[in-house]
Amino acid sequence: MSPTPVTGTPPEAETPLAALIARQIRLTGPLPVSAYMALCLGHPQHGYYTTRDPLGAGGDFTTAPEISQMFGEMLGLWAAHCWLAMGSPAGVALVELGPGRGTLMADALRATARVPGFHAALRPHLVETSPVLRQRQAAALAALPAPPAPVWHDRLEEVPEGPLLLLANEFFDALPIRQLVRQEHRGRLLWAERKVGLDADGRLAWVLDPAAGEALVPPALRGSPPGSVVELAPAAAAVAQEIGGRLARAPGAALMVDYGHAGPAVGDTLQAVRRHRFADPLEAPGEADLTAHVDFAALAAALRAGGAAAWGPVTQGDLLSALVSGPAPPS
Ligand SMILES: C[S@@+](CC[C@H](N)C(=O)[O-])C[C@H]1O[C@@H](n2cnc3c(N)ncnc32)[C@H](O)[C@@H]1O
């Protein structure tokens, strides 16, 4: 059956990327949300992160490292503490996934400059696909008095194996998700995939493809009521499994901070943000940030599948309080 249009976008909203995506849909059919997100955020010419620095008051959104230098300083001291607990190994990779303007990494390095031996033992590795943000990161690190020489990568897989300290703030929520919707089709309740297609006027529109199959839905959620949305994050799971494998093969620790929920849950969390306001995700592809909440249980499962132990999630407030004062004594 052909997918069902459920909404359309206003005609004045066309962007260069909208035209390219519409052409691709005419050629190959509706795109899963994951393919649409990947194009919107990472298209080599028109992708959101390819073309701009979106952070800060003059951009679309702001993040914790941009609000207070203490955020990066605390995470840097956490990394230094882990390094000491690991036995202070040489050749440790201090990896940041999606480092934005490089503020967190710069604050982390500045805060840890006096930890004896730490900077001599580490190399900063910045996993970043945006050429614009790579330049911002290079400038942020170059402004430090004696920064360890950084290396950039498109993917975590490019970072050399070995002792690992990994930080990621608001990285996993930028990775593409798939969405499955429970709906009635020919008298039967089934799980359809939400895709981006075209409406009768050729504008981008949500469509439902009933061919998805409920095998994709976590068993605990298969009986959810009609209209429920389940999100899958295969790209996030692949990165988490890669981290887990690295932590199983060498000493290390990883700290991921993000918006999300603690376990399998239903809900449509795909959101577009432009100029600090929510927007329609289909309205201006390549011009708005697209994110989805992180399923921390799925992230932990992928880390464990890779071979690592995983804890959390805890709230960011509890994390920062514990980093300031140490964990609460057992009651
Ligand atoms: C929301 S910003 C967060 C920036 C920074 N961590 C902060 O807290 O300010 C997301 C970051 O991830 C990067 N990014 C998005 N998708 C990526 C991908 N697939 N691989 C590597 N970096 C990516 C973006 O370019 C950007 O630096």
TrEMBL record:
Keywords, alphabetical: Methyltransferase, Transferase
Claim: Transferase is one of the keywords in the record: yes
Single annotated GO MF: protein-arginine omega-N symmetric methyltransferase activity
GO biological process, any: methylation
InterPro entries per UniProt: NDUFAF7, NDUFAF7_sf, SAM-dependent_MTases_sf
Record field: transmembrane: none
One Pfam family matching this protein: Methyltransf_28
Superkingdom of the source species: Bacteria
Keyword hit for Calcium: no
PANTHER family listed in its UniProt record: PROTEIN ARGININE METHYLTRANSFERASE NDUFAF7, MITOCHONDRIAL
Protein name (Swiss-Prot/TrEMBL): Uncharacterized protein
Organism from which the protein derives: Rhodospirillum centenum (strain ATCC 51521 / SW)
The organism's taxonomic lineage, starting at the top: Bacteria, Pseudomonadati, Pseudomonadota, Alphaproteobacteria, Rhodospirillales
